[in-house]
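Backbone-to-sequence.
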């Protein structure tokens, strides 16, 4: 009987997953696997061997998307991370399975959402990826919340809600600790152009009180808005994005103002970006300018540095691979802002070339700078600039970063990436003695199906 039961169960599963034409639900599976090899040197800008790192890690993602019918779907995504030879959380937010015996408790839920069309609107409810239209200057990560989007021929409207902290998880009377983000985008298309005015609002009645659940607002890198219990917070961002196409050229630009206040300080900051890309088929090139204001005086009660509240996680991607914490983000140079940008004025140029169907090369040069100078300028990672470089806090030049990528298509669905990044130190961060330019060398083998 046991063998007969197992056979019947197996047959039922085979029918469910191999005969979708007769079933109500279509089951779509896909995934991604990568292994990275990396070496870092002189992350402290010193020729002392103190900040070196070598390692290997692996990431696996499994995607399951049931399509119940054309107007109702779901999306479930799971991730497993492991540093080779690592047991514990050295390479991930959960236990690694990379040590002897494997057996890590390492399955992470990345998405769990439903996606449906109702009342001429698209609804996405649950844990999902959300990114602001600035490309991550304020938020870009997986969050739990809701998206409601309307689309017509030339007009689109999106209203999103993100719950970044639930106060009542610690105390049934702690709703004042709740912290939320509302995001409104209006998309207007005119020929080959898109205009997107946007508004972001983050608010909490008591953003500093929920210490047991992990205070949501204060951020160690930009802590002048640090809150204490009982203090409310209101932060808003208003701006405009434009996308245009001119022949082989694509141009993108945005400008934004960030304001708000709490009991300790008033926030007034700016950010903007312009990027132009030309695609000629076998080759292409781009230029990009990025700006986020810094705090010109940390001794006053005005916050002028572009502010990303803690637990929100801005994530500006695809800029300086080394300084910006790109695809190889295991380690960053000291004082680097990484993906959460503030106090920056960067200019980059890059190009790519397809040598064959299998080989592609990419190059980028970045001229990296702080937006503000002076010994009282806003700093990152809690380190005052006047103690980091021979410029004594009066120089804004971080340096010149050179990024090299080579991609080889091993076979269908499999690629090998090789990269080398080198940061030529500027006076803002270069030590006065024993200085050494940092570098990064890496390889990544990946498959997607």
């Amino acid at each position: 009987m046991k063998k007969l039961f197992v056979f019947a169960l197996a047959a039922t599963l085979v029918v469910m997953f191999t005969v979708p034409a007769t079933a109500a639900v279509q089951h779509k599976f896909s995934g991604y696997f990568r292994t990275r090899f990396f070496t870092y040197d002189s992350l402290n800008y010193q020729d002392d061997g103190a900040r070196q790192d070598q390692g290997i890690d692996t990431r696996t993602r499994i995607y399951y998307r049931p399509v119940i019918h054309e107007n109702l779907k779901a999306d479930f995504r799971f991730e497993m991370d492991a540093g080779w030879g690592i047991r514990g959380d050295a390479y991930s937010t959960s236990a690694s399975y990379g040590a002897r015996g494997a057996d890590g408790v390492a399955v992470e839920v990345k998405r769990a959402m439903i996606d449906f069309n109702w009342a001429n609107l698209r609804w996405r409810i649950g844990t999902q990826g959300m990114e602001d239209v600035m490309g991550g200057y304020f938020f870009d990560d997986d969050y739990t919340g809701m998206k409601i989007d309307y689309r017509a021929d030339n007009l689109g409207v999106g209203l999103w809600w993100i719950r970044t902290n639930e106060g009542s998880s610690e105390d049934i009377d702690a709703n004042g600790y709740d912290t939320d983000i509302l995001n409104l985008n209006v998309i207007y298309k005119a020929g080959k152009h898109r205009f997107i005015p946007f508004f972001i609002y983050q608010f909490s009645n008591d953003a500093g009180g929920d210490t047991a659940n992990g205070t949501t607002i204060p951020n160690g890198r930009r802590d002048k808005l640090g809150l204490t219990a009982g203090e409310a917070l209101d932060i808003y961002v208003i701006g405009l994005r434009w996308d245009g196409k001119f022949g082989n050229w694509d141009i993108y630009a945005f400008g934004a103002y960030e304001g708000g206040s709490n009991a300790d300080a008033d926030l007034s900051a700016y950010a903007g970006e312009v990027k132009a890309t030309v695609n000629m088929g076998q080759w292409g090139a781009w230029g990009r300018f990025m700006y986020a204001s810094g705090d010109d005086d940390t001794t006053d009660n005005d916050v002028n540095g572009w502010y990303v509240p803690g637990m929100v996680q801005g994530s500006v991607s695809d800029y300086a691979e080394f300084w910006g914490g790109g695809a190889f983000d295991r380690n960053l140079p000291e004082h680097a802002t990484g993906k959460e940008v503030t106090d920056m004025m960067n200019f980059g140029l890059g190009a790519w070339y397809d040598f064959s169907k299998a080989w592609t090369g990419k190059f980028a040069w970045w001229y990296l700078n702080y937006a503000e100078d002076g010994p009282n300028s806003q700093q990152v990672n809690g380190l005052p600039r006047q103690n980091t470089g021979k410029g004594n806090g009066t120089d804004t030049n971080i340096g010149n970063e050179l990024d090299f990528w080579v991609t080889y298509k091993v076979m269908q669905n499999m690629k090998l990436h090789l990269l080398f990044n080198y940061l030529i130190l500027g006076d803002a961060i270069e030590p006065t003695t024993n200085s050494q330019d940092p570098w990064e060398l890496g390889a990544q083998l990946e498959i997607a199906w």
